[in-house]
Specification:
The complex is a heterodimer of chains A (about 140) and B (about 325).
Chain A (H helix, E strand, L loop, with lengths): L6 E3 L6 H9 L3 E3 L15 E6 L12 H8 L1 H4 L2 E8 L9 H10 L3 E6 L4 H14 L5
Parallel strand pairs in A: 1-2, 1-3, 3-4, 4-5
Chain B lengths: L25 H12 L13 H5 L3 H29 L6 H28 L2 H13 L1 H14 L4 H15 L1 H12 L4 H31 L2 H30 L5 H18 L15 H7 L33
Classes of the chains: A alpha/beta (about 140), B mainly alpha (about 325).
């Protein structure tokens, strides 16, 4: 039970989201970005952590591998919330991928952070994610 | 570059026709696509709608605004004519060179935009005075020198560090002012144009920082320690100078302390673009919320479900998506 991933994330080669996840130090699985990698299948509730693409426009804002992951209905049924990485320089499009996924999957956008997150972001999300899940019966 | 020293041999030893269908690094195409889809020109922004608003500023506020924009013009000029081109010889892929060509041109568009603002809103004499001020202002010239010294050096890693500090830190003592005016419903069209520049600079800083990190990871631990030391050292030198620049500009209107928070916040982001940890603690990066709101006009409340400070249980606003990709 405790080995179930609480977080599923995507990160490109620049690795900002991966670094944030490493600092969180919570169970997490990465959606692979290599085109030939075997797709990730998730079997339990999770929060998706997703960076925003596209530098301000809606088109292409959600990374393709994340779309493919969510197109799998089995994966989609377990999503409980979204956390978005981005940059406030993109204005209204800050963390836009999180908003798009939240809308599409009907789950809350829980938090946004910039680049690989500050120490405060890590503390906020650790605290938030830990209390987000209902206590075990 | 001519009289300083002979340029090092380019990393790409020969020029082959660039093939965008054979990528060594996906990030090059991703960033090329971002930059080209974000392309804009100042003519797209109806700056003349700000003429009435400009007249409501006091003479002192007008002079401050023209000076701030002249200082920004200098940075964009440096980046277009020296900074971005200086990165080309160290490009790891031909596509990276092409991205720097895009950045070089876009920085010229930014520099050109401030002249559009001037010709629309300001008296020629006032603008000429500001350009003269920029040539003589010691702190503005000091930051120019600090950056150019690195651009002309033979250290490719420090060229990238200096470039990221310019793109992600030095602009923000200037960007503050149009965001401040915008938050007071003044010069709102000018603010729209500045937001386009702010968006571009984020991609530039991110990309140059990413290429920096690739080279940094290949360096020896000793070299890494040296570069990290230089980087934090340069940031502190720039920061000390930036504080003086900020005081000289903003003391008269009482905004210095607010600008400094914006500097701290953006200095942290500049360091993060290089892969380094933030330096300034949260207690001095708490930018005035009205300035943050001016960066994203008409946006929803902040999303912080966990702390309960944002709108509770927000479901994202409907966004048009590329439905070809989404199967549900």
């Amino acid at each position: 039970m405790s080995t179930a991933p609480q977080l599923v994330y995507f990160s490109t080669r620049s690795g900002n989201t991966r670094r944030f996840i490493e600092k969180l130090d919570l169970p997490a699985e990465r959606i692979p970005f290599e085109k030939d990698a075997s797709p990730l299948k998730v079997e339990s509730p999770y929060i998706l952590v997703v960076p925003s693409y596209g530098g301000g426009s809606v088109a292409g804002a959600v990374p393709k591998p994340v779309i493919h992951f969510l197109n799998d209905e089995h994966n989609r049924q377990w999503i409980r919330g979204v956390i978005a990485a981005g940059n406030t320089n993109f204005g209204t499009a800050y963390g836009i991928a999180g908003r798009i996924v939240a809308e599409k999957c009907r789950v809350p956008l829980l938090y946004r952070f910039e680049l690989f997150g500050t120490a405060q972001d890590v503390a906020n999300v650790r605290q938030g994610v830990t209390s987000f899940w209902p206590p075990h019966p | 570059m001519t009289d300083m020293q002979a340029p090092a041999a380019p990393k790409l030893s020969r020029i082959d026709a660039i093939n965008w269908n054979r990528l060594q690094d996906d990030k090059d195409l991703e960033v090329w696509n971002r930059l080209t889809s974000n392309f804009w020109l100042p003519e797209k922004v109806p700056l003349s709608n700000d003429i009435q608003s400009w007249k409501t500023l006091t003479a002192e506020e007008q002079q401050l605004t023209i000076r701030v924009f002249t200082g920004l013009t200098l940075l964009d000029t440096i980046q277009s004519s020296v900074g971005a081109p200086s990165l080309m010889p160290d490009a790891r892929t031909p596509h990276e060179e092409a991205v720097y060509a895009n950045i070089t041109f876009m920085e010229a568009v930014h520099a050109r935009s401030y002249s559009s603002i001037f010709s629309t809103l300001c008296a020629t004499q006032d603008v000429d005075d500001a350009f003269r001020w920029s040539e003589e202002n010691p702190t503005l010239q000091a930051k120019s020198t600090l950056i150019l010294d690195r651009y002309y050096s033979d250290d490719p890693l420090m060229r990238k560090v200096a470039s990221v500090f310019l793109e992600s830190f030095l602009f923000y003592s200037g960007f503050f002012l149009p965001m401040y005016w915008s938050s007071h419903a003044k010069l709102t069209n000018t603010a729209d144009l500045i937001r386009l520049i702010i968006r571009d600079e984020a991609v530039h800083g991110y990309y140059i920082g990413y290429k920096f990190q690739l080279a940094y990871e290949e360096a020896t631990p000793e070299r890494q320690a040296e570069v990290k030391d230089y980087a934090y050292g340069l940031l502190m030198e720039l920061y000390d100078n930036e504080v003086k620049y900020t005081e000289s500009l903003y003391d008269g209107v009482g905004l210095t302390e607010d600008v400094k928070k914006f500097l701290h916040y953006n200095a942290n982001k500049a360091l993060m673009n290089l892969g380094f940890e933030a330096l300034f603690p949260d207690t001095i990066t708490d930018v005035d919320p009205t300035i943050m709101a001016a960066l994203a006009p008409n946006a929803d409340e902040n999303h912080d479900f966990f702390s309960g400070s944002g709108s509770s249980y927000v479901i994202g606003r409907a966004e048009a998506t590329e439905d070809d990709d989404w199967a549900f």
